[in-house]
């Protein structure tokens, strides 16, 4: 049988030069992922790179990436990275194979309905309001850790609405920290070494156990109470009432871990990069402040406010273009397939790297420039499908994309409505490439309080700056 053709037409295949003995391009990739990504398209539309001794293929053309992301059966989640992530996180919706994915996604999708998002946005607003009200004028904050804590508490509050702060949920929180710490190491550690009973490995196994026991305790508690709290856990438990079999307790524990790992880090990274960009672009920060005053001014924040914070939304999208936290994901071909005129064998690794698309001058004029208004509908209309891939695409597109966007928009509006931010000495904004995200190495921000606004005048619906 002929291999299916995926855009072989006029697309060019190329090989990235400069692979080092033993490590290939891995060192360059980890040292400066954005510079590496920006170079790749000059070698072709599909580019072969080396990760250690193994070959991998990077789609650098939006059409090719779209095809890879949309054909989850041929380009399945797998390979050493996902196999190891599965060893840590289990086979939840983010790590499972294509054959299992449709069922899990269908069961989880209702937890991200508009009505649920509205409830989660109350948690988001409460977390980021409390955070920004706790700061003092002139204070210097280490941004990533505090934003991470607020993002993590937001996911915990969305998962376990009425049990947030209880001992079981605090154990879940603490365990996820340790698990995340180890995830990156485990992803790169040769398989046999992961089972050596070092102190770190033992601690990791103990935390995974503690997390599973705590989630089981919260599930038992929810069952006894038999209530729908309108949160993520209630929606997962409600799947059990469906005829075709819902999520088992073990599967629910895996989804909880998936949401916590997928939902904290990337939001904190996005907010850190956004604040860093805004510290260097005070006029954009001032536009956000004015928009915040007009739209939110003194009123309780609602999820639907995010739609009316149009400029802030464009800042979030532009931040995700320049610094997509999900910078590297893998797929493995389940059968031979033709891509850009090459036949990739079954088992070939394909790398999905959003920064490769996001920094191409052919797609984004002056690609290094921070220009939120490039996302005005009339200017963004001509972008080809697949050109913006911060949330992935196809059936595996980020399940939390609307959640994350609302959270980032509300958080920026709340923070910049109250504070002016400037970078303080000691900031090192070079990107640190982690397993689950790309974040600034150290972002220290000096805060200056914005003088209190005049009493608000209600704005007409749909108004943006
Ligand atoms: C700005 C923040 C975020 C970014 C940039 C982001 C990015 C991504 C990307 C690129 C993927 C696809 C990975 C792949 O194709 O291999 C993904 C998947 C996923 N994300 Fe997000 N994410 C964010 C926030 C969130 C949040 C807040 C949640 C949950 C509350 C979440 C839950 C998930 C889940 C469950 C998946 C797996 C979906 C599936 O395979 O069906 N994400 N995310």
What does this structure look like?
The protein has 465 residues and is an alpha+beta fold. Helix content is 49%, strand content 13%. It has a domain of 153 residues: Cytochrome P450 (Cytochrome p450). It contains 18 helices and 14 strands. It has a 6-stranded mixed beta sheet. Strands 1-8-9 form a 3-stranded mixed beta sheet. A 3-stranded antiparallel beta sheet has the order 6-14-11. Strand 8 and strand 9 form a beta hairpin. Helix 13 packs antiparallel against helix 15. The relative contact order is 0.17. Keywords: Heme, Iron, Metal-binding, Monooxygenase, Oxidoreductase. This is Cytochrome P450. Belongs to the cytochrome P450 family. It comes from Actinomadura fibrosa.
The amount of helix comes to 40-55%
The proportion of residues in beta strands is 5-15%
Give the class-level CATH name of the domain at 1-90 and 327-389.
Mainly Alpha
Which small molecules are bound? protoporphyrin IX containing FE
Number of helices: 18
Largest sheet: 6 strands, mixed
How much is the radius of gyration in Å?
A: 22 Å
Family: Belongs to the cytochrome P450 family.
Pfam family, one: p450
Keywords: Heme, Iron, Metal-binding, Monooxygenase, Oxidoreductase
InterPro entries: Cyt_P450, Cyt_P450_CS, Cyt_P450_E_grp-I, Cyt_P450_sf, Cytochrome_P450_Monoox
